[in-house]
Amino acid sequence: MFIVHIASECAPVAKVGGLGDVVFGLCRELEIRGNPVEIILPKYDCMRYDRIWGLQMVHQDLWVPWEGGSIHTSVWFGFVEGRKCFFIDPHSPQNFFNRRAYYGQGDDDRRFAFFCRAALEFLLRSGKNPDVIHCHDWQTALVPVLLYEIYAGLGLRHPRVCFTLHNVKHQGVTGPHILHATGLHRPEHFMHYDRLRDNFNANAVNLMKGGIVYSNFVTTVSPRYAGEIKNTDQGFGLGHTLHVHSGKFGGVLNGVDYDVWNPEVDGHIPRTYGPATLDAKYANKTELRKRLLLREDFRPLVAFIGRLDHQKGVPLIQHALHWCLRNGAQFVLLGSGADAAIQNDFGALKRAINDNPDSHLELGFNEDLSHMIYAGADLLIVPSLFEPCGLTQMIALKYGTVPVVRETGGLADTVFDADHAPRPYHERNGYTFQAFDAAGIESALVRAVGLWNHYPRHFRELMENGMRYDYSWNHPGRDYLNIYDLIRDR
Ligand code: ADP
Known about the structure:
Layout: E1 3-6, H1 18-32, E2 37-42, E3 52-66, E4 69-80, E5 83-90, H2 108-125, E6 132-136, H3 142-154, E7 160-165, E8 173-174, H4 177-182, H5 187-190, E9 205-206, H6 207-214, E10 217-220, H7 223-231, H8 239-244, E11 249-251, H9 281-292, E12 301-307, H10 314-326, E13 330-336, H11 340-352, E14 359-363, H12 367-376, E15 379-382, H13 392-398, E16 402-406, H14 409-414, E17 431-433, H15 438-454, H16 456-468, H17 474-487
Parallel strand pairs: 1-2, 1-6, 2-5, 6-7, 7-10, 10-11, 12-13, 12-15, 13-14, 15-16, 16-17
Antiparallel strand pairs: 3-4, 4-5, 8-9
The structure holds adenosine-5'-diphosphate.
């Protein structure tokens, strides 16, 4: 089956969070299973060009219809760790992808709507005829709309679309101007409640909703989150739409790329280790402490890695830090984010604890350091308000780092409490809590740090239980192929 992914991120060249990991990992798995896969991305100026091999222009003169005229666009090709990637490079005064940032621009709706139109124009002009187009989140939600409403009539009749919701909080709610810009010229048709009109604001276009309505299949990134966004306020207004389309909607847990995230082969960490050589993990703890200037002492090391965003449970992260320092644990944070207020908060916190030998906050994106933390920490907290899937807890499990998570979304599907989970002990792999408050996270931290201090043998069993889980792309890869097979045009 010939599959084309159209996405705004792909690790390691353009990665902001989990979306980038998922696009890369899933595509790799689909290829391993014998399917030709191509990925279409924007050609951002801030990408990791050092990770693209053989970059060359392959299509010089693509004219992409836009705002009643057209934009001269080039398409580049290169390999990203063996994946075939095409990069869309528009030459227009707006400089859509030369902003030194992936997201957070005032005209993100236009930037990515253009990208959708350009990707389809490229597929049409280059004569590519994939069986399945897989797109991701609101940034590429217009692909199925444009395919069905415009490009099928121009000859792209064969491809079917799978659309994955990675985070329903961000839906691409914008104005009707976007319809005109992309050539969807019948506002009365498209602004209908059954199509792109936002469920609550009658004058707004909701791109994610359009993607759900027009796709042949819609997935989200964990079964628990699928239920939450359909049935609770976690759907941020899209619950009804998902109910209407529930016959083509389901949750598929994301995988982790064990070629990248595996302590047995990880080139970023000082000492590789596995379940049979778990003692070597402690050499990584020592190295991490040296690198971050933490004191070497008999204490558990608790970590947080992730975007510093409201979603990730900012007050609980801060509470955990203070709790750890009061209760004989060390705390390390690696976080980046776009929200200035949250950044400032953590900046102030970093200055306040600067001289503390038991804590380090690293503000910024640092792939290399993230590997060292997964390998060196004893516990990893993920106290999210909501979490569609979450990769950090799954990566932590592979590294024998025990996750402490809030029981929501994909966290609830992957972490099973050492004391309470309705599973046999050898299948329990971490600690969970429910209430989104200080008492909630403390109830889990007390138990986790207590076990580390007083029952090291049991703690080690918990580490080993986690390392045995297979959260690779093996299962989800098969699930996605089944979905593709279900929707393909034969
Ligand atoms: P989200 O997609 O909401 O950002 P996930 O848990 O699904 O969260 O994915 C996060 C991914 O991004 C993981 O691979 C994690 O290691 C990585 N990551 C997050 N923040 C940072 C950072 N500051 N530096 C390095 N890697 C990070």
